[in-house]
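User: Design a sequence. Structure:
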């Protein structure tokens, strides 16, 4: 796994975390217990810290970064799905940022909230806990509870924790083709 120090700051990865061999972590990155960073993801903490909390997952080809002085914090059990950009934002516990979404500087996503696929959460926006937001710019639509999306918010943290441990134990470089 490519881990790069930058100006004396080195990524810190808990021994139980899964970092895919093609993920890239640079600078002041902290990856806590049981978290996972998947294939092609880039976590770049050269301007400010990036924290991936316990059990969170940052999926394939996501980019996590932030501007000077604004820590990016991916909350416990939170999901940053495939091809997302999270830039200088705070993500609450077990929230889900769905495929292809963008969350910008100073935005806060509440615990258990869902940002629908392809949405753009504007800088400084606040998505309350347990709410579904969608659009560009994203606006709150309704509670997650009782919607078809509730299943994804509820199941994703444990499903990705289990899948990460399978990858951690079982991936190997395949032979030539």
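Assistant: Done.
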């Amino acid at each position: 796994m490519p881990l790069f120090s930058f100006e004396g700051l080195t990524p810190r990865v808990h021994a139980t975390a899964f970092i895919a061999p093609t993920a890239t972590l640079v600078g002041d990155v902290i990856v806590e217990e049981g978290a996972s960073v998947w294939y092609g993801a880039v976590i770049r903490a050269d301007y400010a810290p990036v924290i991936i909390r316990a059990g969170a997952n940052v999926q394939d080809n996501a980019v996590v970064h932030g501007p000077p002085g604004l820590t990016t914090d991916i909350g416990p059990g939170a999901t940053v799905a495939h091809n997302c950009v999270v830039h200088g934002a705070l993500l609450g516990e077990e929230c889900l940022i769905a495929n292809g979404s963008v969350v910008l500087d100073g935005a806060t996503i509440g615990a258990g909230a869902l940002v629908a696929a392809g949405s753009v959460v504007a800088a400084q926006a606040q998505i309350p806990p347990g709410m579904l937001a969608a659009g560009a710019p994203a606006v709150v639509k309704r509670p997650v509870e009782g919607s078809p999306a509730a299943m994804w918010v509820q199941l994703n943290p444990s499903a990705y924790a289990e899948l990460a441990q399978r990858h951690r134990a079982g991936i190997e470089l395949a032979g030539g083709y």
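Residues 3-170 form a domain with the UDP N-Acetylglucosamine Acyltransferase; domain 1 fold (CATH 2.160.10.10). The chain has a mean pLDDT of 96.
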